[in-house]
Every structure is written in structure tokens, then in C-alpha cells.
TrEMBL record:
<dbReference type="InterPro" id="IPR000182">
    <property type="entry name" value="GNAT_dom"/>
</dbReference>
<feature type="domain" description="N-acetyltransferase">
    <location>
        <begin position="14"/>
        <end position="174"/>
    </location>
</feature>
<protein>
    <recommendedName>
        <fullName>N-acetyltransferase domain-containing protein</fullName>
    </recommendedName>
</protein>
<dbReference type="GO" id="GO:0016747">
    <property type="term" value="F:acyltransferase activity, transferring groups other than amino-acyl groups"/>
</dbReference>
<dbReference type="InterPro" id="IPR016181">
    <property type="entry name" value="Acyl_CoA_acyltransferase"/>
</dbReference>
<dbReference type="Pfam" id="PF13302">
    <property type="entry name" value="Acetyltransf_3"/>
</dbReference>
Length: 180
């Protein structure tokens, strides 16, 4: 991530809302960016039709997939999602953000807002996990600033786009204090 835009001392305000099909053009702006998709499991989208299909079949029916919007705006600049695991007490957090907003505190604000609401919205949830590529220190910093605990490096944990990756496991449990 570009570190030239340092986070301002004043906290960034974001809102989280459910996605709508009409968000496809705003989403395409970042979902088609190869740099944004580089650390993600998905490849950059090449067509609006592909993205509309993803919105219809995955995002809209998903129980906790939210658009990240800057305060006072309705246009999504990213997404944050909570994926269920086989255990109803645990879920995995993932997030993605348009490159224009990297290094400005937007992802941290979105993760903080998600954590502040998701325990009340998801029945039985006690633990949020986040897995981050060891080669993505900016995303690791987002989680640290949002109050997550770095637990371990999971060596050769997963394959992403054909490459075996070491991942850092972070967690936030329902008794952890929220970070302001």
C-alpha cells in the first residue's frame, strides 16, 4: 500500500451499509484494479456483467457483507465482510478498499465500525478472526490499530493465486475492549 498519504490525526468517519445492485459501477472502480486484488483471493474483474453476477449471487444474499462509505457519501469505496466458519462462535473478517483511500485510516475505521456492531448482529459470535498475508504489513497494521491481537504466523497456510502463503492470524473476541 502507498504510505505517502499518512493518516491524519483526526479519525476518519465511515458508514457501513448493505450493498445494492446499483453499486456495481462504484465497486467496479476498485474491483477491477490489479493492485487492489493483488492480496485477495479473487482476480480483478474485467466486466461489469461479472461483477453484477457476483453481487447478485454472493454479496446480496450474504448475511454480513457491507459497503464501506465515507461519512456523508453513499458511494462504496470498499467492502468488509464476515464469513461464517464451521463453528457459529467464530467468523472470519475480510476487507478490501479502493487504492485512492489507502493509508488514510479508512480501512481501520471500517474494521472498528464492523467490530463495534457485528457481535450484536450475529447470534452466538464470540471470536472474529482475520488472516493476512505476511507480505502485507499495511493490512496487518489496520487490524492492530483496530484492536485485534496478533496471534501467530501460520506457515505455508494457504494457496493464493497459485502461490503458497504464510499468513498472520489476528483475532478480536467479544470481551476485548473496543478501540476508539
Amino acid at each position: 500500500m502507498d504510505q505517502s498519504n499518512k493518516e491524519s490525526p483526526r479519525a476518519v468517519e465511515v458508514t457501513l451499509r448493505r450493498f445494492e445492485l446499483s453499486d456495481v459501477d462504484a465497486m467496479m472502480a476498485w474491483a477491477s484494479d490489479p493492485q487492489v486484488a493483488a492480496c485477495c483471493r479473487w482476480d480483478p474483474y474485467e466486466s461489469t456483467e461479472q461483477l453484477l453476477e457476483f453481487l447478485r449471487n454472493t454479496v446480496l444474499p450474504h448475511p454480513w457483507y457491507r459497503a464501506i462509505c465515507l461519512a456523508g457519501e453513499n458511494r462504496p469505496v470498499g467492502a468488509v465482510a464476515l464469513r461464517p466458519t464451521g463453528d457459529p462462535r467464530r467468523a472470519e473478517l475480510g476487507y478490501v478498499l479502493a487504492r485512492a483511500h489507502w493509508g488514510k485510516g479508512v480501512a481501520t475505521a471500517a474494521v472498528k465500525r464492523a467490530v463495534a456492531t457485528v457481535f450484536d448482529e450475529v447470534e452466538k459470535l464470540e471470536r472474529i478472526e482475520a488472516l493476512v498475508d505476511v507480505a502485507n504489513p499495511a493490512s496487518q497494521r489496520v487490524l492492530e490499530k483496530a484492536g485485534f491481537t496478533r496471534e501467530a504466523v501460520l506457515r505455508k497456510y494457504t494457496v493464493v493465486k497459485g502461490a503458497v502463503k504464510d499468513m498472520v492470524m489476528f483475532s478480536f473476541i467479544n470481551t476485548d475492549p473496543l478501540v476508539e
